[in-house]
Amino acid sequence: MSTSRVGVVVTDTYPADDLDHDTAPLVAALRERGADAHAVVWHDPALDPAAYDLLVLRSPWDYPDRLDEFLAWLARAEAATRVLNPPELVRWNLDKRYLAQLAARGVGVVPTTYRTDLDDVRADLAAAGGGHVVLKPTVSAGARDTGLFRADDPGALALAGRILARGGVVMVQPEVPELSQGREKALYVVDGTLTHAIAKGALLAPGGGLIGGVYVEHPEAVDVTDAEAEFARRVVAAVDEVTGLGVPLYARVDTVDSAEHGLVLLEAELFEPALNLHVVPAATGPVADAVVTRLVQ
């Protein structure tokens, strides 16, 4: 065990409002368990993936700005060593059309259309009448290019046009009022076990953009109901049913309990979710234990 090398995959710079709070405690916990663990920057030319027994994807949060480069690196990394979560799962998870696949497996999701034509978006907006809608691209992170609008706001169609002009696919969803009230919960499932839950507050400002103009979460530890715990387990099981890739090392299951739609999945983050170990430090041990377990499997 003492010779096992673990690279915790990060990047080299983070904005002041979106820092990586997880890597330092995770690396320390892995070292306490006998692993030779280090944070490694994915785009560092000196990084040799083959020098590690395991690479754990944690916070390569600049990947949306250099997606092709990241995907090429991911292919090289998986050819050289073991990577978790598995790159095949990461590639599947990068496009939010996976939600439709999980819905087909019986997982509740927010009603969503996926549009590649502006006229179809226009029809969705017309069908929503004077209600509010959320538009976002299927490939995004940190609420980039995500907006909450009245359906008749010209800004909604303008956002859709920008997404389509870049070759993206537009998701159109009805507003879920509970999200605007900050009632989203992130449920963390580590190696199949629910470890903790976080509420991060509302993010989207009406009329497009983010509250305060920047992406800022306000994470707080929250309790989990039996129904939410079972829902999280069901989501992870459905991911395995769709992909055949087994139980992921980590999953963040974003949910909201909606008066209109029931308990629904907003996102299953299987790539680089912040674990919020600074908010729930007791979760650090279970995460490190799960990594060590995977080393010997």
TrEMBL record:
Record InterPro entries: DcsG_Biosynth_Enzyme (IPR053191)
PANTHER family: GLUTATHIONE SYNTHETASE, PTHR39217
Protein's name in the database: ATP-grasp domain-containing protein
Taxonomic superkingdom: Bacteria
